[in-house]
Every structure is written in structure tokens, then in C-alpha cells.
Write a structure and sequence with these properties.
Blueprint (H helix, E strand, L loop, with lengths): L3 E5 L4 H12 L3 E5 L15 H8 L4 E4 L6 H6 L1 H22 L3 E6 L22 H17 L5 E6 L1 E3 L12 H10 L4 E4 L5 E6 H15 L6 E6 L4 E3 H16 L5 E4 L17 H7 L7 H13 L1
Parallel strand pairs: 1-2, 1-3, 3-4, 4-5, 5-9, 6-8, 7-11
Antiparallel strand pairs: 8-10
Helix pairs in contact: 1-7, 2-4, 4-5, 6-8, 8-10
Bound molecules: NADP nicotinamide-adenine-dinucleotide phosphate (NAP).
Length: 306
């Protein structure tokens, strides 16, 4: 097993979960943050020299660094390009030069809204946002630079939810938001039409998939692979609000109202049907996300309300 694993973006939501999962699997983890941090050194992926020094002496790298989210990337498109595209290229370049295997975090936003379902890593790419376009550039850089020379896996992750342990913060997913709002006794706002779907995957499943990907890149494949990583179950946003409302009613006897609002990002396209193909990930990595969303909602509400 490769032992010294560098984690870029370790101060982030997914990166933090990856550090915990790797440590609990016995890896020697070398985390790095994007900006000043209490415990971790800073490695800015835009700085190729800093990335190369970081990669020196490692057995594998996990790149969870990114400028994340549609709004953040729309308001800072230059930064989105520098971090998500050039930054990913810098990491892939440093890994390729040193023959260090790489697991890179991409997003289904890099696939966007392809013409057919299920959505797979092989689907025609049609990103509809700055976030998606810059993540696609990053993923292509990883594929082009590592190619058949250095093993790499890019994971196009759906929407991540949940906490990696009781002390860590939750995610920015719509279901984390609904649980926050509902537990605070506030109504659940749903953007119209409400039928738009989400595939939600638990952050610990994402971290465990990354551990499986590291084991796989270590197994001697010298090729670049991409997979979609999600739970394989899609819910409409209205269904998600309904699930949270129903679990709150069971736990407290009270149910928050569900309010329909106009979508403030009406110009960004809405993905109506979010069916993904999980089979390639399962057959290649031998890993299936298995945390159940409804169970998490019930447990999380119980934890917060009692
Ligand atoms: N969360 C999701 O639902 C989701 C879904 C699909 C894909 N992803 C992908 O998963 C990865 C992690 O997302 P996340 O949700 O964990 O985001 P996050 O919480 O915002 O974390 C982003 C991380 O990237 C670091 N970073 C930002 N700019 C950097 C730079 N120039 N150099 C080095 N590091 C930099 C941040 O460091 P500092 O905070 O220390 O500056 C932070 O550690 C991203 O690639 C994202 O595209 C996430």
C-alpha cells in the first residue's frame, strides 16, 4: 500500500473527511490547506513550484482543492479558472513528472446536462456554468498530463451532504440546508419548479470512495480514469423538503411549511432528471456508497433536537 498520501484542500469540507478516512485506514497523511491554517502548511495549487515541492517524496496525492459552487465561480471567474483548471493542471504535472499516482476531485457539473441518461463519465460533456467549465478543464488536464504514464482517477462527484464526524461542519447541500432550517423552526424554501432533481452522496461515502480509488491507483494501472461518484438515487428538491418535513414531524410532532420561491439563478439551467450510472465505479473500484439519505435525515434531526 502507498503510505505517504498528500491531501490538497485538506482544510475543506471533503478534504477534512478524506484526512479522517485515510488516517483511520492507517495511511501516513500529509495534509495541506489553501490558505493560512492552524495545523496544516499552505500549498496554493496556483503556485507550480509549491505544488512540486509538496509532491516530492509522496506515494500518492488526493486533490480536493477547488473553488467550489456556481455562485462563487460566477463572481470570481478568473480565480475559478486559476484554481480549478490551472491548479489541477499544476498538480497533474507535478504528479506525472514524479510518477506519483493522483486521485482528483471533479464534479458532475463538469458533465452538465448531457442529452441522454443515465449520466456517466463517458457522457458528452455539456457544462452549463463557470464552475462546471473550469472543473472540466481541470479534469481534462489531469487526463492529458497523466495519460498512460501515471495512474490517475478523477471522480465526478454529485452533491455531497452530511458530516464526517460529530465535531465537523455539515455540507452546503440542499438537504443540509433544509435540516438546518427545519430544526430552527423555519419554513423550507424550494426554488421553482421544485421538480429539479439531486443525487446526494454522504461525505463519508465520498471519503471512502477516495480511499478505494487510492488502493486502485496503487494496484498498478498506468492509465487515467474518470468515474461518476454519487448514491445512484435521485430526489426532486420538493421530495427532499418533504422528507425533512416528515422526519421533523415524527421527531417533534411539528412540521415546517414548504414554500415555493422563484429561482434567483433562473438563467443557469436546471437538471430535471438526475439519474447516474454507478456501475463503472462499482466494477472498477469495488466500492458502492451505501449510506441512506432518509436514515441520515432522521438521525441528524434526532441528534440536534434531543
Ligand atoms: N461539496 C460538494 O458538494 C462537491 C460536489 C462535487 C464536487 N466537489 C469537489 O470536491 C472538492 C472539494 O470541495 P469542498 O466541498 O470540500 O469545498 P471547500 O469546503 O470549499 O474546500 C475547498 C478546499 O480547497 C482549498 N483551496 C481553495 N483555493 C485553493 C488554492 N488556490 N490552492 C490550494 N487549495 C485551495 C480550500 O483551502 P482554504 O479553505 O484553506 O483556503 C479548501 O481546503 C472540489 O474540487 C469540488 O469541486 C464538491
Amino acid at each position: 500500500m502507498s503510505n505517504r498520501i498528500g491531501v490538497l484542500g485538506a482544510s475543506g469540507y471533503v478534504g477534512g473527511a478524506v484526512v479522517r478516512a485515510l488516517r483511520s485506514n492507517g495511511y501516513d497523511v500529509r495534509p495541506a490547506a489553501g490558505s493560512s491554517h492552524d495545523a496544516y502548511p499552505t500549498v496554493d495549487v496556483r503556485d507550480r513550484g509549491a505544488v512540486e515541492s509538496f509532491v516530492d517524496g509522496l506515494d500518492a496525492v488526493v486533490n480536493t482543492a477547488g473553488l467550489v459552487g456556481v455562485g462563487a465561480c460566477d463572481s470570481q471567474p478568473d480565480l475559478a479558472f486559476e484554481v480549478n483548471a490551472t491548479g489541477a493542471a499544476n498538480v497533474a504535472w507535478a504528479c506525472q513528472q514524479r510518477q506519483v499516482p493522483l486521485v482528483h476531485l471533479s464534479s458532475v457539473a463538469a458533465i452538465g446536462d448531457p442529452p441522454n441518461r443515465p449520466i456517466a463519465a463517458t457522457s458528452p460533456r455539456n457544462p452549463t456554468t463557470t464552475y462546471g467549465r473550469t472543473k472540466l478543464l481541470g479534469e481534462r488536464a489531469v487526463r492529458s498530463l497523466t495519460g498512460d504514464r501515471t495512474p490517475s482517477i478523477s471522480l465526478c462527484v454529485t452533491n455531497v451532504y452530511g458530516t464526517s464526524d460529530d465535531a465537523s461542519e455539515g455540507g452546503n447541500s440542499v438537504v443540509d440546508f433544509f435540516v438546518d432550517r427545519g430544526c430552527a423552526g423555519e419554513p423550507l424554501p424550494v426554488h421553482r419548479p421544485g421538480t429539479q432533481e439531486r443525487d446526494l452522496v454522504h461525505v463519508r461515502d465520498v471519503a471512502e470512495a477516495i480511499v478505494a480509488a487510492l488502493d486502485s491507483v496503487d494496484a498498478g494501472y498506468s492509465e487515467s480514469r474518470s468515474h461518476v461518484l454519487g448514491s445512484g438515487t435521485a430526489y426532486s428538491v420538493l421530495e427532499l423538503a418533504g422528507l425533512v418535513a416528515s422526519e421533523l414531524r415524527t421527531a417533534t410532532g411539528r412540521s415546517p411549511g414548504i414554500e415555493l420561491h422563484e429561482n434567483p439563478n433562473a438563467d443557469s439551467s436546471v437538471i430535471e432528471q438526475f439519474e447516474i450510472d454507478t456501475r463503472p465505479l462499482e466494477s472498477d473500484l469495488g466500492f458502492t456508497p451505501d449510506r441512506e439519505l432518509r436514515e441520515w435525515i432522521a438521525t441528524e434531526i434526532d441528534r440536534r433536537m434531543n
